Automatic annotation (TrEMBL):
Pfam families: Cytochrome_P460. This is Cytochrome P460 domain-containing protein. InterPro entries: Cytochrome_P460, Cytochrome_P460_sp. Keywords: Signal.
Length: 252
């Protein structure tokens, strides 16, 4: 009888030890599994670049003035021109196709008649692939430029957030205006600009001089202290003056 009790007690002790070992093994396996999942999750999140980190790909469109202004907005003292860099982009949209690779959309913003900033978005095949699917805006990248057309310090991630709700319109806020834009206005504008009396005035022999600011109140101009501009500077200065005259109508 005594031997049976000893055997039974030993058997119960072995069962208890086995159960304890099994529990410890299960806890260890669960802990390892949890750590692996956390590690896997961390690795997955590390696959994607910070949103907006590709902004350096977007350069200022040097031929901006050759683009097409397909939309304008006026809000109080703010005036905005929206450019697209090609006629083909407008034609694609109006034919029901996506905007082609190479499309550049530029917002030219004015406040009180003075240029305030440029916001540029550009689409290229393969762009945006470094971002997470939840954050990327198709193949678009964005950049903010100062009035001097230099890169501005800004959080470009805000541009992605602003355009994210326009996925249906290829992430464009002005898609409706582009669809409705009359391409005939371009040819008509080109014809009217060539027919205008101003276009017939020869300016090749004009001399445009930049006078120092401190001489503005002087009635006499010292020609030696004035700077005669070359042809490129002259054209830009005339364009700036005409643009200010054009924008002045929105202030009156």
């Amino acid at each position: 009888m005594k031997k049976r009790l000893i055997h039974s007690f030993a058997l119960l002790l072995l069962l208890a030890l086995f159960s304890l070992t099994a529990c410890n093994n299960n806890d260890t396996d669960a802990k390892n599994t949890s750590q692996q999942e956390e590690s896997s999750s961390g690795a997955k999140s590390g696959e994607y670049a910070e949103i907006g980190s590709g902004a350096n790909l977007v350069k200022f469109p040097e031929d901006l003035e050759k683009g097409i202004v397909f939309a304008t907005y006026d809000r109080g003292d703010i005036h905005e021109n929206i450019y697209v860099n090609s006629r083909e982009a407008i034609e694609a949209v109006q034919n029901g196709d996506e905007l082609p690779s190479g499309t550049v959309i530029t917002l030219e913003g004015f406040r009180d008649g003075e240029i305030e900033h440029y916001l540029v978005m550009e689409k290229r095949t393969g762009w945006g692939s470094q971002y997470s699917p939840e954050e990327r805006n198709g193949e678009w990248e964005y950049q903010h430029f100062t009035p001097n057309r230099e890169v501005a310090k800004d959080n470009i991630g805000r541009c992605f957030s602003c355009h994210a709700n326009e996925e249906r319109d290829d992430y464009m806020n002005s898609m409706d205006q582009m669809k409705e834009f009359d391409l005939r206005e371009i040819s008509q504008s080109n014809k009217s600009s060539s027919d205008t009396p101003l276009a017939a005035i020869p300016t090749e022999h004009w001399k445009v001089s930049e006078i120092s600011a401190y001489m503005n109140d002087s009635k006499e101009v010292n020609k030696e202290e004035s700077n005669v501009m070359d042809d490129e500077e002259k054209v830009k200065k005339i364009q700036d003056v005409l643009l200010k005259m054009y924008l002045q109508q929105y202030k009156s």
